[in-house]
Specification:
Layout lengths: L11 H13 L4 H29 L26
Amino acid sequence: MGSTVLSLRIDGELLDRLRQHAAKRGMSVQDYVVRTLIRDDFDERFKVAVEETEKFYGDVRGSVTPPLDSPLDSRRSVTPPIT
């Protein structure tokens, strides 16, 4: 995937805050802004995927946790015993 130049006109105070956030992470302002946009895009796509899954399977957030002896209990380890 290639890259394209995007010019933005932003407020000076916002640019100062972006510089501070980027500096805390040891990043350039450009890298910080790009990573922030990528994260926001991922979050939005993930939210849509969850909503589509809920439409297909139904909302399971109100479901009951399986009992401890259930094979569906995710709190149990699935590591095989060491022999």
